[in-house]
Write a structure and sequence with these properties.
The structure is a single chain. This protein is globular. Helices cover 80% and strands 0% of the residues. It has helices at residues 2-21, 26-37, 46-66, 70-108, 114-159, 167-191, 197-223, 228-237, 239-254, 259-279, 294-310, 312-315, 319-325. The longest helix has 46 residues, at 114-159. It starts with a helix and ends in a 7-residue tail after the last helix. By secondary structure, it is mainly alpha-helical.
């Protein structure tokens, strides 16, 4: 019993270490690519050598212009989410609103007068509706593309060419995974309302840590050709390691009181965790699985089956297509 507890604690610490130390690989990924390209060519005839150097230079320039740098994408994420989105919220709440409140106080002679009682909330609602909400939606869309670029670029530079999945299977897997992750997030949120404060907080942090680990490792596992049931099985069996890996992000995103600011923190940190997950070694855990995803898998399967049964009369004319849509049910 003591040895098992020590092993669990050791794997939690190992996951925490990999999440933090793996991020330093960011500074070497682009350099390694440049080193591979600038390797000297073998001694050949002068004409052949010139021709090969010219072809390699052209290929390198095309690749350099078409393939984004990992560090460039990460800087874009930080500049957009931290420098534009988060900074605009801070400027409005801690600079613009206090200035307007001070001017209103000078004009009316009362700090909490009737003018500011309706003017303050109206400005906050207007700013939220016309700036925060559109920018939040736009950030989610842009970040999805940037995260995918970072993950694919890092995978190619350290592990080679990703495995290309079947398009229909990829779409079904993505939809199933998105719905399952949404239910798992709700499950973790409901766990925080349990009557035991310490236990509920621990269960909620465990849920969020595993969810963030799944987010981070999913890019690599999809590029490796793993299906969703393999990814979930790996998370559940190696839950101590993945709890430790996702713990830093779970703690840092829980610190802000605003959900919007928490989303900005997540968008800034997540590219770093993608790199850390890509550089982490693939473990083969032998622990007793922690079946936290089982209720969400069952609920998602039921929804998919229900939606398929509604479309069954239309789908009967195409049995192959119908079989592909039913594929996520194998992820139990």
């Amino acid at each position: 019993m003591t040895d098992s507890f020590q092993n669990i604690c050791w794997e939690i610490a190992l996951g925490f270490r990999d999440a933090v130390m793996g991020s330093f690989k960011i500074f070497h990924l682009d350099k390694e690519e440049e080193t591979k390209v600038t390797e000297p060519v073998e001694q050949k005839t002068i004409l052949a050598q010139r021709r090969e150097l010219k072809q390699k230079k052209v290929h390198h320039e095309e690749k350099k212009s078409s393939e984004p740098k990992v560090m460039h994408r990460i800087i874009q994420c930080c500049a957009w989410n931290g420098g534009v989105f988060w900074l605009s919220i801070l400027i409005f709440n801690y600079l613009l609103l206090p200035m307007l409140k001070g001017m209103t106080t000078l004009l009316t002679g009362s700090e909490t007068g009737p003018v500011w009682s309706w003017m303050g909330p109206m400005l906050t609602w207007t700013f939220s509706a016309l700036w925060i909400l559109p920018l939040f939606v736009l950030s989610k869309i842009v970040n999805c593309f940037w995260f995918a670029d970072i993950a694919d670029c890092a995978y190619r530079k350290s592990r080679g060419r990703p495995q290309l999945p079947n398009i229909s299977m990829f779409i079904a897997d993505m939809l199933f995974s998105l719905l399952l992750q949404t239910f798992f997030l709700l499950q973790g949120t409901l766990a925080s309302f349990l009557p035991l404060p310490t236990v509920s907080q621990l269960i909620s942090v465990l849920h969020m840590s595993l969810l963030y680990s799944l987010y981070s490792f999913e890019y690599k596992w999809v590029n490796m050709g793993w299906e969703l049931h393999q990814r979930l099985d790996h998370i559940e069996k190696g839950w101590p390691y993945y709890f430790g890996f996702g713990l830093p992000m779970a703690v840092l995103t829980a610190l802000p009181s605003s959900l919007v600011v928490s989303g900005c923190v997540f968008s800034i940190l997540f590219p770093v965790f993608i790199i850390s997950a890509n550089e982490a070694l693939t473990l083969h855990p032998n622990h007793y699985p922690l079946k936290l995803f089982a209720p969400c898998v069952a609920l998602t399967n039921a929804i998919f089956h229900h939606s398929i049964m509604k479309r069954q009369p239309v789908a009967q004319a195409s049995p192959k297509k119908h079989a592909r849509i039913q594929e996520p049910s194998r992820h139990r």
